[in-house]
Design a protein that fits this description.
It comes from Danionella cerebrum. Keywords: Cell membrane, Disulfide bond, EGF-like domain, Membrane, Repeat, Signal, Transmembrane, Transmembrane helix. The protein has 652 residues and is of the alpha+beta class. The chain has 5 domains: 25 residues, no CATH class; 34 residues, no CATH class; 47 residues, Laminin, CATH 2.10.25; 175 residues, Chondroitinase Ac, Chain A, domain 3; 180 residues, Rhodopsin 7-helix transmembrane proteins (Rhopdopsin 7-helix transmembrane proteins). Helices cover 41% and strands 21% of the residues. The protein is built from 18 helices and 25 strands. β1 and β2 form a beta hairpin. α15 runs parallel beside α17.
Length: 652
Amino acid sequence: MEFFHSSPMKLLLFAAWFASVLDLCTFVDVCPPCHPDASCKLDSKKGCACKNGFTGNGISSCRDDNECENVTGICGPDANCSNTVGSYYCTCLSGFTSNGKQQFQTNDGTYCKDINECMDDGRCGPNSKCHNKPGSFICSCLRGYTSPAGPWFMPDNGTDCRENQKKLCHLDDECIKEAVNNTVQSMINLSTPERMKEIRHQTSAELSPVLLMSYIEAMASRKPNPEHESEHPEENVNETLTNLVFSVNNLIENDEKVEWKKINEDLRKYYITTLLHTAEKETLLLAARDTATTQMQVDAGEVEMKLYKVEPHEAKKHPVTTMIQGNSISLTTNKAMHGSKNGSTSVVFLIYNSIGDLLKPTEDPGVADYSRYAAAGEITVNSPVIAAAISDTETFALKNVTLALKHTQAIDPDRDETKCAFWEYSQGMMGHWSLDGCTRTRVNTTHTTCSCNHLTHFAILMSSAQANLLAHYIVLTRITQLGMVISLICLSMCIFTFWFFRDIQNTRSTIHKNLCCSLFMAQFIFLVGINKSTHKWFCSVIAGLLHYFFLSAFAWMCIEGIHLYLIVVGVIYNKKFLHRNFYVFGYGSPAVVVTISATLGYKYYGTSNACWLSTENNFIWSFIGPACLIILIQEEYYRLFKNIPCCFELLR
């Protein structure tokens, strides 16, 4: 005891240690009777406190805390929360798997990761494609196939992919009209946000040519609804703009180019122009409804959009300039008047990386010096197509547009010629490349700089001196036409000779006369109608006539071989009977082939490039097959007769 008396501090420290070891709650009744789910706490006013996971006064009540209801998203977006007495646990949602424990709590290092169901081959069945998405997957059919459920389906509902019976619908005007009308009617009553969301979803699958056209019409069509002018709440505008840009991207991405090129050139231009016009118009309309956003960017891959809200007085001081994927564009105002209704003007820039191949320049009056281009070589679009538009032309009076467009392929400025062009189109949505109002100011290996006095869709046209394909094509076309004219003159002389000179008329001259008539008709129709591909039904008739008369020419060649065989082997025949059968074979057998071909595949008569048989589904073999058969028969005749010295004497 003297030890503690001599050092009071030591006594105090000893007392504190002794109290911590013995727990005063054990020896001193600090707490009244506590609730079973509570414990005695020295720092508590009454000495009792509910345990973790419970709420109450600790004496008469301790209620379980429902963490799953009280804390929003406690387990995260990919897990379910389950409450237990005094605690909770998380489990991953279907389609997700845990990286550790199956039951876990927040912040213990466990999380849920997506299961890629598409790793399982054959998940969607034959002729289909699996698309993984967070927590699930969805299926679509490969090109040329379709499902009764539409572009998207789940394999567990019995849906499968079957060959699309309407995959050639784009060749039939009535079929196109029906398909487009069905798609438009299914979406016409949707609001713009709903419509853009649905189109984005539907166009994410692989599309046929007629679906490309249908969804563009659906995007461009809207039901007049003046009583619902405010159908775009501001909070939905950004999402709708994003869906719009991604929908446009889905329609023109590289994977769809093969389908676009199956469409007739005029139709293709019409729908591409409609798409460009609609994207620009809808973007400006949506931007006008959003007064909060001052700047927005959406990059969908092949298509990118930038939106700016510009104050009139600022536009007068500084050009509106943007950089987008290595391309720059600057808008300079001439004057600034009073602002628009919301005090600002919307300026939209849209860039299309892959659309140039679908808008190849052709010989039309839109390009003033096309003949100069044609002499130098083929013209190509050698840059992205970039569009600029403003919502209020009175507020933002344009003075000049300066563009620096990046070349798709590097050029040699000394050998390759570039031109600044824009896509000019009418209210009927038919367009062409034009040079009016645009001049080239500078060019190097990677970029061409242009100055224009108007807004629209701009691009760089290039004529390469290293590729004279177009010039060669024109020359070869003229040579072909000249050769056919000479051939027609010679054939007409032969027909006249065989018809009117009685001294030479016999079975052989009759065969030659009909052969010349068939060739004359085939070449004449070819000369005047082979390029009339813009008129679908007329082009189909031309293709059918060419099919018939060329087969007829081959048939009369075969008849000549048969006649030679009859002469050599010395068969005695009735001349009148033989001639009648020759006519039946020479003109009847081609008619049978053409009739069967037209019945089974009339849509294959005429293509977007020429009035001839399509190569799709091997339809061209309806001509090549009979022609090859006749050639083989003639070759067999030659093999039989080549060693017979008297053969040619008998023919005299």
